[in-house]
Design goal:
- By secondary structure, the chain is an alpha/beta fold.
- The chain is built from 16 helices and 13 strands.
- It has two domains: 5-174 and 359-374, Rossmann fold; 191-350, Glycogen Phosphorylase B (Rossmann fold, 3-Layer(aba) Sandwich).
- Strands 3-2-1-4-5-6-7 form a seven-stranded parallel sheet, with helices on both faces.
- The two termini are 22 Å apart.
- Bound molecules: uridine-5'-diphosphate.
Amino acid sequence: MHRPRLLVVFGTRPEAIKMAPVVAALRDRPQIATRVLATGQHPMLLKQALDAFGIVPDAQIAPSRAAGSLDAALAHLLVAIGGAMERERPQRVVVHGDTLTTLAATLSAHLRGIPVAHVEAGLRSGDLSAPWPEEGSRRVAGVLADLHLAPTAAAVAALRAENVPAGAIHLTGNTVADALCAIRTRIAAEPALTAGVEPVLARFAGKRIVTVTVHRRENHGAPLERIAEALARLAMREDIGIVVPLHPNPAVAGPLSARLGGGDRVALLPALDYPAFVRLMAASALILTDSGGVQEEAPALGVPVLVLRDVTERREGVVAGGVRVIGTQTAHIVAAAGALLDDPAQHAAMAVARDCYGDGHAARRIADILLAVMTGNMG
Ligand code: UDP
């Protein structure tokens, strides 16, 4: 008997982290043949994330040599993913979120008449320029997918507001909670997994850790300079150690290293593997970030987050009280971080562990829905 073939496609660190639990759950369902296609959108970060979950892709696409331009990168991905689909001949494709890989895989599948399931469907900032180009990519996926696996009730509502039929939407929870849970269990059993971050935690022993990640395109240039200046001013405090795992994009690493390199209260590190980064987040008094995934993980760990963006599509953490959106103005960042560090009551009110993004069982739900759809037991 031929098993129905499913092709899961992703290419970046956050996709790998959030899809790893889905791949594991699908592989526990032998009625479907699940294959993983990894694109080379962020090769080093992708491998680091997949290694943390012991996932080896079945097929890989070499990174584009045309550096710099988004349209060249998209064209490369579109053609290469299309070629992989010709070889794999899946009955269904599964994509995640809002990356260029998501956009390319969705279009490639659509052009071949292959149905698409979209995981983490329905996130919307309402602003095509922030996050850019992700808001546009996920809206395209929302139009072309026929199965929408929404992480939260707000995401379901956003899809319904765009006239996606109710029967095509499933509320699953966000798989980030599954990933975080799986890695924390692994760390508890094998503490050596976090070795990559222990030296910096020892260096800042007795101080409060402020973790910072920045990478979004809309923060490249002037916003990043303002963020770097804010961190330099915060680093004048003696009670904190600022830890910045750097995204390898030179547009990010360059300005931060130029302004902050060499300071004794700031540690600029290469990107950490997922177990080490989870340990760092859990050890932090405060996180400043423009990352989507970190905005979802930190509330689960009970660590306050200040978001270095003007808007967020992840309102649940804000509504729950664990996350504040503060933008990228230097004075504003210094004031907001300083107030949280100086006011124990304000800090305690934010530092409450909350499961506003999922209960840790999203991957199982998603795999069950895909199994039902692919074996004809559901619409
Ligand atoms: N992350 C990691 N190592 C790091 C920084 C982040 O493993 O040094 C993880 C983080 O826990 C989260 C994901 O990478 O799960 C977020 O990736 P990123 O910020 O690049 O993308 P976004 O979530 O903004 O799309």
